[in-house]
Amino acid sequence: HAAGNRMTRELAFIERLRALATHPAARGLRDDCAVLDLGAETLILTHDMLVEGIHYLPDADRADVAWELVATNLSDLAAKGAEPLGVLLGHMLGPDDADFLRGLEEVLGHYNVPLLGGDTTSGGPPRADGLTAIGRATFRPVPSRSGARPGDAIYLTGPLGGAMLGFEALRDGTGEDSTAYRRPRARLTEGQALAPHVTAMMDVSDGLLLDAARMARASGVTMALDAASVPLACPPARLSAAMRWGDDYELLFTAPAETALPVPVFRVGTVLEQADTPLLLDGVPLSEKDGLGYEHG
């Protein structure tokens, strides 16, 4: 019930923000990034926060927190086909800052992305960190959530469920591999390659079903998903959970079915004319009230 109240408050707050965010670059606050035309270039801007105990376990390695903070923001750039230009960090100081700095150096080096500035402050618990990622569009028009058309095919760039298994391994202390959860990968190369071909694209951060419903709503269509076609990094018995679990950061996109795509992908469904619900899963109508995925709160 408390989570529901938080969701209601958040949605109401965002609606108030929309009244302020009238610049075209804001895309009505209905997309994952701002898209700012600047002369011959288009800048892609995004900002996300991670809060201790909400987005990661309180005893998480702070090096992993730094990695996740950067990679998840870069994933939003990937969904726009953007090339990263740099990041700005907002960091809450604490006793394990050396670990955070180690992870930050590793992730910035991995993606070859410069740190351009930011701010530090004391505070917490809980601790919170924010990151602004800045990129440039490599293709225009820049993909959005809202371009899916009836007849398009629905695709994923990779398997789901790996982050779920990694989280459970960490939570339960089993010693199983937790890399997929601790060190997510932003699909920047795939996003840049796909941008000229897609009709809509976003990253899967809150679960395939919830994010597909968001894309369907934004596009004014219904998405028909075929569960057996969803690629998995977990046992098939966990399919339902994997489709509702976030943090896999694969790209979900639509494109005309006949389009030859430049990277290996998995077709998971078809876009239909808008029906009563945003989703059909193996023909069964689903909407947000059916518990489709992770709702921030």
Describe this structure in words.
- The protein is α+β, with helices and mostly antiparallel strands and about 300 residues long.
- About 30% of the residues lie in helices and about 25% in strands.
- The protein contains eight helices and twelve strands.
- The strands form two sheets. A seven-stranded mixed sheet has the order 7-9-6-10-8-11-12, with helices on both faces. A five-stranded mixed sheet has the order 1-2-5-3-4, covered by helices on one side.
- It starts with a helix and ends in an 11-residue tail after the last strand.
Total number of helices: 8
Mean pLDDT: 93
End-to-end separation: 11 Å
Q: Strand pairing plus helix content: what structural class?
A: alpha+beta
Shape: globular
Q: Please describe the biggest sheet, giving its number of strands, its sense, and whether it closes into a barrel.
A: 7 strands, mixed
What integer value in Å does the Rg equal? 19 Å
| SSE series | HEEHEHEEEHHHEHEHEEEE
Strand percentage lies at: 25-35%
Kindly state the number of beta strands.
Answer: 12
Q: pLDDT under 50 segments (min length 5)?
A: none
Kindly state the percentage of residues in helix: 25-40%
Sheet with the most strands: spatial strand order: 7-9-6-10-8-11-12
